[in-house]
Model the fold of this input.
Amino acid sequence: MDGNTFWAALALVLVFEGLLPFVSPGGWRHTFQRLLQLRDGQLRFFGLCSILVGLLLLWIVA
Done:
């Protein structure tokens, strides 16, 4: 992986992260407030699931 691929991937992450607050700021705020009510273990579980899905997608694409 060269530097350009890394920066392109980072740019795509920022685009995807910005889509929901741009399209539906009220829905994003509501979802974020619900996330704040979760316990640490629940947040870690969702984080782990996100990592695993991302790794699976990388494995399929690469």
Q: What stands out?
A: The mean pLDDT is 92.
